[in-house]
């Protein structure tokens, strides 16, 4: 990939603006007092009788030079002369390997625990997609934000949420990262800036756009010069047919927000093939349409993912705006643990199983003498023990008290309904009986 892939026309937008609404359009520009140098889109489009006959600025300003790439080439890493033309150092490789092994081992354990009745509700596993979470999130600082979907356990782990807290959350216990109130699809950690876990598809994208807006606002309006925090928004291919995706790409590009939109294109949205569901299956092409770089990368190769991620994260941190990255990946299990996974063609599954991202990294590290078998085995053993310990911790932890049910519920608790005895139905011990266990 050439370094021009992520080039942009200018740094932070400094166009003067006085308002966000169009109500001043009929006013002469000289009567509008600029109050902030932040954002400024309406200024560009506002009618100005003095310049009415000059060429429209928005056409002149369009970022037509944006390039999209379809692959990443090997490039030299100057800092590792001892290992030659490699993309990673030994330490980086071991960190990536450990994170991917953690994701895989954790999810395999979840399957076991789910079938043993330790978890309730839907549980969506991430097996096969580890290169995406690891390739991106391991580049982040603690203050950077991650927004995920219902397939969120591994994003939480990569972001540093301890495995025992994620497992405990899945068991619905008080020691979970959401005190047992969120469950599988609603991981959250203020400390690690994991903003969620969102179960409605596309719901996380505006939230992520909001956290990116916060970073920019802190830096430019509140003058917190060191606030260079970046947001990563992860979501699936099916979600890209949802309106919120387009609305947020527009806003992020317009305001040059520090965000990377990471599409985990695993080719399926439950049982709907991506090819059948979208007018143009090449999702990355939608980036340039909004004036941001669009990148396609092999999402089964953690080193390639990491290369494009590095460039996009740096671009966001510099204040050069958003990037859309489509990672072509595959989930090795059904949509959720309730899905018998009978729709996908066995040859398709076999094709991607042969491209397992963990096996690929292992091979790369051994062939390039970055690590030996024994060293990698030791990591696997360490992670096995960590995940076992997480299960023991979760199992031994207490269930939340019933009184916790309405804590942090902002809607009127009467929404839970009042029974014939005048008490909230949720206070009835039988309230949760019959909840679907799928
Ligand atoms: C707003 C909304 N509509 C429908 C659903 C039901 N639903 C759950 S997962 C899913 C498919 C999402 O597919 P994709 O975005 O490709 O993510 P993947 O599961 O493949 O990671 C749908 C439609 C939902 N959760 N939210
Ligand atoms: Mg999908």
TrEMBL record:
Cytoplasm in keyword set: no
Keywords: Coiled coil, Oxidoreductase, Pyruvate, Thiamine pyrophosphate
Coiled-coil features, chain-numbered ranges: 369-396
Functional summary from the UniProt entry: The pyruvate dehydrogenase complex catalyzes the overall conversion of pyruvate to acetyl-CoA and CO(2). It contains multiple copies of three enzymatic components: pyruvate dehydrogenase (E1), dihydrolipoamide acetyltransferase (E2) and lipoamide dehydrogenase (E3).
Obligatory cofactor(s): thiamine diphosphate
Name this polypeptide is given: Pyruvate dehydrogenase E1 component subunit alpha
GO biological process: pyruvate decarboxylation to acetyl-CoA
